[in-house]
Amino acid sequence: SQQGEEDPQALSIQEGENATMNCSYKTSINNLQWYRQNSGRGLVHLILIRSNEREKHSGRLRVTLDTSKKSSSLLITASRAADTASYFCATDAVNGGNNRLAFGKGNQVVVIP
Amino acid sequence: NAGVTQTPKFRVLKTGQSMTLLCAQDMNHEYMYWYRQDPGMGLRLIHYSVGEGTTAKGEVPDGYNVSRLKKQNFLLGLESAAPSQTSVYFCASSRPPTSGMETQYFGPGTRLLVL
Fold first, then answer.
1. Is the N-terminal amide bond of B39 cis, ω within 30° of 0?
2. Cβ distance of B103 and A106 shorter than 8 Å
3. Each residue's pLDDT tens digit, A52-88
4. Distance from CA of B29 to the nearest CA of A (A)
5. What are the C-alpha distances in Å from B90 to residues A39, A104, B49, B80, B105?
6. Most Cβ neighbours (<10 Å): which of A10, B29, B70, B92?
7. Which of A39, A30, A22, A15 lies closest to A102, judged by CA?
């Protein structure tokens, strides 16, 4: 089954620095979504990028999608301590017929004040 | 709006006991999902529902049953709990897919410990 895979798994940065994480997937997709999970909480949707889009911005977030490489990246600029969280990518397969998202294992980001 | 709520927040069960987790959403979403999250495993889909009265199996359905009697509620049942079902359970809801799956809205989770 298709699954997003994030890389790297854990990232520790200083406040104010940028954080970049990547996600790869195996089959053609309709869209790719990024979610954030703070410790002990539910997932919160950050951004959705469709297969015909290459880049999308939302505040300090920038997402790129390269369908030829089957990969996506999430960039958080000017990180804050509050950005400390796990970040998950999720994909849905074209013609998957499964009405579901496949989540990756997550990237843990720690922003040091 | 409360969004997606889950009850209980935390539960301890003994092996063989049964329980039901309740998920409720007030966004009038057609689709609802149950996931489990284990360390290092990401989220795995247990069951999902595309509308009132319908349910379908996800990636890891064994040992669980679900019901969607009302549009706003999605129940997850464990008939005979096993230690392997110790996990954090998340419910989510979404609108139906348009050009691909839509944003999912998650509840706060239920931590289940099976002894």
1. no
2. no
3. 999 999 999 999 999 999 999 999 999 999 999 999 9
4. 14
5. 14, 15, 14, 19, 10
6. B92
7. A30
The two structure tokens encoding residue B91? 């419910």
Distance CA B3, CA B93 (A): 9
List C-alpha distances in Å: B46 to A2, A34, A71, B30, B34: 16, 20, 26, 17, 6
Q: Is A47 on the interface with B (CB under 8 A)?
A: no
The beta-carbon neighbor of A1 closest among B33, B59, B99 is B59
- What residue has token string 């509840």? B107
